[in-house]
Amino acid sequence: MTSSLQTDIASIQSIGSVPTILKAVAELTGLGFVCVARVTQDSWHSCAVLDQLEFGLNVGDSLDVTTTICEEVRDNNAAVIIDHVSENDQYRDHHTPRMYGFQSYFSIPLYRPDGEYFGTLCGLDPKPAALTKASIQNTLMLFAELISRQLVNEVRINASESALSDALETSQLREQFIAVLGHDLRTPLGALLNGTELLRHHATPAAVPVLNRMRRSIERIAGLIDDVLDFTRGRMGGGISLNMRHEKALHLTLAQVVEELRAAHADRQIIAVLPADLSLLCDAARMGQLLSNLLKNALVHGSQSEPVHVRASQVNGIFELAVSNQGSPISREVVAKLFKPFWRAQGQSPSEGLGLGLFIVSEIAKSHGGTLDVVSSDTTTSFIYRYRTASFVERRILARE
């Protein structure tokens, strides 16, 4: 059996309605044998079978096509329906009824999506049956049309699944390429950064501003690469990598992030409340990255004339980090899209980044087992990260005992 024939049989087998159609045809006509056949110029193969006569044909079995009436249906592109062979002038002496021993018979053509002949919906029985009755004949034609339409849908589904599989494979290869490229770019960037630092120590006063701009550009490129690497890790199933430690001075890491962004946005006011007793099992560097991305987002999208507030607290075993800014409210529709990769607010300039900042924030939150909420009123928008500490878990365990 050729692969194309196996595919054709599988396409009929995959149509869930075919067994029901065969059963309905048998009940409608009273015929004991009904099947869907694939008919070519030189072959006849059964693709689906309902055999109550013990005719002996199973799915995939073949007949000599020259011994079948389906060959005539193929050549004439027209159905053949016989109530009673012995009373039919055209078929009473035909070799096929004598060979297979039937008196009632029908064979209706089936077509591929492009109109090409596929085969037949056919049936037979040793007893006569009123198959040419208009209501029965029309119903048989309808069932054949339904199977032909399902063949159309099956081709479309297979094409869609193939395209989806190709797109998924391409996407995975693209993300793997990005991950490798991002990793390999770190080495030359590190060399550029070290070279810039070395030049600054021996530069003339006039060259220092240029070297400072070069350093900031290199750091920006490095930050973009880090974002892309974090994105590909998340998309490829690895998730954001963490180096979990018991941090007893987390406020220092968070304060450093605030100071860096104050220096970068000297015209803006950042009010930070970071208690010195923050103690948390976490990846401090990732927590700093989470705060940095949230704070940058607030500085870019918040009111340029109002301060941005950063508040951290640890109460009753719940660590909470909130970044709030004044400005226009965020709609629910936009909130639902904020943490999607590469998403940008309408009108946002491409120069403001890759659109990965909030996606990475959400991945860091998930990796730590925390939650991230957005609360937006008419005047204030807050991004709030919450994380259950070890003491919270311990109290829950003690409460159950």
Automatic annotation (TrEMBL):
Name all Histidine kinase domain ranges: 180-391
Kindly give the InterPro entries that the UniProt entry links to this protein.
BphY/WalK/GraS-like (IPR050351), GAF (IPR003018), GAF-like_dom_sf (IPR029016), HATPase_C_sf (IPR036890), HATPase_dom (IPR003594), His_kinase_dom (IPR005467), HisK_dim/P_dom (IPR003661), HisK_dim/P_sf (IPR036097)
- Top-rank taxon, per record: Bacteria
Q: What class of enzyme is it?
A: transferase
Tell me which UniProt keywords the record has, alphabetically.
ATP-binding, Kinase, Nucleotide-binding, Phosphoprotein, Transferase, Two-component regulatory system
Instruction: State which Enzyme Commission number(s) the record gives.
Output: 2.7.13.3
Annotated membrane-spanning segments are none
Please give one Gene Ontology molecular function term for this protein: kinase activity
Reaction(s) the record says it catalyses: ATP + protein L-histidine = ADP + protein N-phospho-L-histidine
Under the heading PANTHER family, the entry gives: SENSOR HISTIDINE KINASE GLRK, TWO-COMPONENT HISTIDINE KINASE
How is this protein named in the record? histidine kinase
